[in-house]
Design goal:
Layout (H helix, E strand, L loop, with lengths): L2 H6 L2 E7 L4 H12 L4 E7 L4 E6 L5 H10 L3 E2 L1 E9 L4 H12 L4 E7 L4 E7 L4 H10 L3 E4 L5 H39 L3 H6 L3 H17 L3 H12 L5 H21 L13 H25 L1 H8 L4 E6 L2 E6 L8 E4 L8 E7 L1 E4 L1 H4 L5 E3 L4 E2 L4 E2 L4 E7 L5 H13 L6 H29 L4 H15 L2 H21 L2 E3 L2 H6 L5 E5 H5 L5 E7 L5 H12 L5 H12 L8 E6 L3 E6 L2 E6 L1 H6 L8 H9 L4 E6 L2 E9 L6 H10 L3 E5 L4 H11 L3 E3 L6 H9 L6 E5 L5 H6 L2 E5 L12 E3 L6 H35 L3 H4 L5 H20 L14
Parallel strand pairs: 19-26, 19-28, 26-27, 28-29, 29-30
Antiparallel strand pairs: 1-3, 1-4, 2-3, 5-7, 5-8, 6-7, 9-10, 9-11, 11-17, 12-15, 12-17, 13-14, 13-16, 18-30, 20-25, 21-22, 22-23, 23-24, 24-25
Length: about 850
């Protein structure tokens, strides 16, 4: 290797986990050396690092993938970096390129709408180096780790909006006289004659003063960013504005002060064009900033759920503390109407808590001693005291905010094409403008120079990379925010795109379709037997049993307010049932074979038993004092929201499959009740993955819906894993989507939102591309030979300003997206 090559390709260090011996070292070195472009690789077992020299086309990410394929892991880190100063899609491409060029960076994804870069690096890669690369590219990075970062970002946005408002007001004030005079000359009878009778030089001087104030006052912001970008040979939208408006202003200055330098008949002024360009583009930026602020309204609403202070018991008295001073283990007091500051468990008192802003459940939930409560929810009626279990970044609300922000910052696969186009868009527009000028100058009518200049300026001004850059991220921001409001959290932004293509929805039964806990569903007493008295005695026998069926019977008795007496002589009869003595009565409960063993005939309940069998329920019997007293059934009941959710999925044209470990008869009975298309029963947990692979055969896209705990492998095996949120646990790593309310209603809502969001993105992209493809040639003058039509630079500026506003405004329509089903209690 030559010294030149060595200098041009510096070493990169990769920290490696999992190596145990010399053969591991050899295996890793061999895997890295196989990556195209790797010049050398040296792996050290003691330091657990690989020193690799990379040349084109190798990338650090390729090396990491090779190491992982070999069976080892690379220690990495991921973080978000705020980026200020981006204005269009070209800026996004430029920042991503600068960050990816930093040694140790594995990937970088920049979002124009959120003004963030999500960066993945090797462990130990200095963030300062990445920040320096961003600054060198012409933008201002800032870290987002500190607690006040969200407030600081919001304050910075507000300050920028106020500056835009001020600059637009100044620009409009000085542009209006110019515009009114020039338009009046063309459209108001007599004004043209009056203006032409004035001293033209004096009028041009007035124009010059007005236009120069606009150009280098409010318009200075374009020069501050556009000129450095031009000097770096990486022009952006600001560069286009600078070139276009300066060309019109500079041409007019020469025509005003040095008209002799210009060809005869071309000494015209375009001060109004330069001023109107700056003013209208400022107006577009102002409207865009206002609309972009509304795209993050969902996050702002979630952040607003956090109260600023909490009432905490400290040293025997109750004190009000700022939220960031509350610690896990603190005892917190909550009064009626207040928001809960942090997550915790109720110690004393009871109340109803409105959780709708967090879970989407519309009805307040009863909370008593031992119940979990969530920060950000509203205490409705009573007062209670609870112990804080999760505070700060660990609370459910903080997790939700973090999850929504991550999804909003994601780049969908659909964005890849946009990124490729915007990388060369601005240079292509500049080339088109130069070509426009040359063609008009060479072949256009007199004054050819003037025609060429005006049309070149129109091309520069009408091109709008902003609309392209905002088309996807604004829709993602609003779509994921709307999802959070509906209790649907997209953990991965990609799920927002792929969910709309799902053809099969596979559902776990227990806890997904059903409540997940047995309940007493049927209780029929024999003639002459008091049902409540029989249930009371039966519950007494079952109270000593730990079987889930016994717990359901006891719970049913307590729900009716029945006092459960003590039992003596309790005996569990394995495979049959249980019996005991209660208040002098001999009570037995169990299967039909137990009744037969006791010499009783369960045939008197034959019709009921047959019905229960058809419904997939196993009948049980109760006997009191050697007499058959009742037939009962315990089952895991279907959630109230499930039938409507299944019907909604069918209306979407989807195939619904149930996968369960339950016996086939029970599973098919539930499937028949709900109208489920296919049943896969008696499947062991490890068999679910194989079932999902079979259902996906033929290229069908499949979403699996489970509880996120027992179903992790199945969630990971599906194209889209949808987890039913379980209480305060939403950090379900294997899921792509989390449903907060525990209701299946969220599944059609998530699919419907995915379809609406991607449709919205396509509308935005169509507008952004069609706008540029159609209007750039018009601005260049292609219609002039046919109809004599030319596009004024002023109209071009207005069109460009409105194109970005249209894209953001269209994305905001997603805020009004109506869910496929309104949320009800699960």
């Amino acid at each position: 290797m030559t010294a030149t090559a060595t200098a041009a390709t510096p070493l990169q260090s990769f920290p490696i986990e999992g190596m145990t011996c010399a053969s591991c070292v050899r295996r890793v070195e061999k895997a890295i050396a196989a990556v195209p472009g790797v010049e050398s690789a040296a792996v050290n077992l003691a330091t657990e690092r690989a020193e690799v020299r990379l040349a084109e086309p190798a990338k650090a990410q390729d090396v990491v993938e090779a190491i992982r394929t070999a069976g080892y892991d690379v220690t990495g880190q991921a973080f978000d970096l705020g980026i200020e100063g981006m204005t269009c899609a070209s800026c996004v491409s430029r920042v991503e390129k600068a960050i990816r060029a930093v040694p140790g960076v594995l990937s970088a994804s920049v979002n124009l709408a959120t003004e963030r870069a999500t960066v993945s690096t090797l462990a130990g890669t200095p963030v300062a180096a990445i920040e320096a690369a961003v600054r060198e590219a012409g933008y201002a990075p800032h870290r987002l780790e500190d607690a006040g970062a969200a407030d600081a970002r919001e304050a910075a946005r507000d300050a920028e909006y106020r500056r835009l408002k001020r600059d637009f007001a100044i620009a409009a004030l000085f542009t209006l006289p110019l515009f009114v005079i020039e338009m009046s000359v063309h459209f108001v009878p007599g004004v043209g004659h009056w203006v032409h009778g004035m001293n033209r030089q004096a009028l041009y001087l007035v124009y010059f003063v007005l236009a120069t104030v606009v150009q280098f006052g409010p318009g200075l912001r374009f020069y501050a960013k556009g000129i450095p970008a031009l000097l770096r040979l990486s022009p952006d939208m600001n560069s286009l504005v600078v070139l276009g408006s300066t060309a019109a202003w500079g041409y007019s200055v020469v025509a005003t002060f040095l008209p002799g330098l210009m060809p005869e008949g071309t000494a015209n002024v375009y001060y109004e064009a330069s001023a109107v360009i700056v003013t209208l583009i400022l107006l577009g930026r102002l409207l865009e900033a206002k609309a972009k602020g509304r795209t993050s309204a969902a996050i702002a609403k979630l952040v607003g759920l956090q109260p600023k202070v909490a009432r905490v018991e400290r040293g025997g008295e109750t004190v009000e503390l700022p939220l960031d001073q509350v610690m896990a283990g603190d005892v917190v007091q909550v009064r009626p109407g207040e928001r809960l500051p942090v997550d915790g468990v109720v110690l004393r008192g009871s109340s109803f808590v409105d959780q709708s802003m967090i879970t989407g459940e519309p009805v307040p939930v009863s909370k008593g001693e031992g119940a979990e409560v969530v920060g950000g929810t509203i205490n409705k009626t009573g007062s209670f005291t609870y112990r804080a279990t999760k505070v700060g970044a660990d609370t459910l609300l903080a997790q939700i905010i973090r999850m929504v922000e991550q999804a909003q910052g994601a780049k969908l696969p659909i964005q890849a094409l946009v990124d490729r186009i915007t990388a060369w868009f601005v240079p292509a527009v500049m080339a088109a403008a130069a070509l426009t000028f040359l063609v008009w100058f060479a072949f256009g009518p007199e004054p050819a120079f003037t025609f060429g200049l005006v049309n070149a300026v129109a091309v520069l001004i009408i091109a709008c990379p902003c609309a392209m850059g905002l088309a996807t991220p604004t829709s993602i921001m609003v779509g994921t925010g709307r999802g959070a409001e509906l209790g649907v959290l997209f953990r991965k932004g990609e799920a927002l795109q792929s969910l709309r293509n799902v053809e099969v929805v596979a559902l776990d039964k227990t806890g997904t379709l059903t409540m997940g806990r047995p309940e007493l569903t049927d209780f029929e007493a024999a003639p002459g037997v008091d049902p409540d008295a029989a249930l009371r005695l039966l519950a007494a026998v079952e109270a000593d049993s730990e079987h889930p069926i016994a717990a359901a019977i006891v719970a049913a008795a307590k729900a009716k307010g029945l006092a459960i007496p003590a039992v003596t002589g309790f005996e569990a009869v394995p495979g049959f049932g249980a019996r005991g003595r209660v208040e002098g009565h001999e009570v037995a409960a169990g299967a039909d074979r137990f009744m037969v063993k006791l010499g009783l005939d369960p045939g008197i309940f034959a019709a009921t038993a047959e019905r229960l069998g058809r419904e997939g329920k196993t009948p049980l019997y109760a006997a009191i004092d050697q007499r058959l007293a009742a037939i009962i059934a315990v089952a895991d009941p279907v959630k109230p929201s499930t039938p409507a959710a299944i019907a909604a999925l069918h209306r979407m044209g989807l195939t619904v499959t149930m996968i369960t470990g339950d016996n086939r008869r029970t599973a098919e009975a539930i499937a028949a009740e709900l109208g489920i298309d296919e049943v896969v029963a008696e499947v062991l947990p490890e068999g679910k993955v194989e079932t999902i692979r079979r259902l996906k055969s033929g290229g069908r896209k499949l979403a699996f819906v489970g509880d996120g705990i027992n179903d992790a492998p199945a969630l990971a095996a599906a194209d889209i894993g949808i987890a039913i949120g379980t209480g305060t646990d939403i950090a379900i790593e294997s899921a792509d989507v989390v449903l907060m309310s525990g209701s299946l209603t969220g599944v059609p809502n998530a699919i419907g939102l995915s379809q609406a969001t991607i449709r919205n993105i396509r509308e935005n992209l169509f507008w952004a591309f069609a706008y540029n493809v159609l209007l750039i040639p018009v601005a260049a003058g292609v219609l002039y030979p046919v109809s004599g039509t030319l596009l004024s630079p002023m109209i071009a500026a207005g069109a460009m300003a409105l194109s970005s506003v249209f894209v953001v405004g269209n994305a905001l329509r997603l805020r009004r997206h109506k869910p496929a089903l309104e949320e009800k209690n699960a």
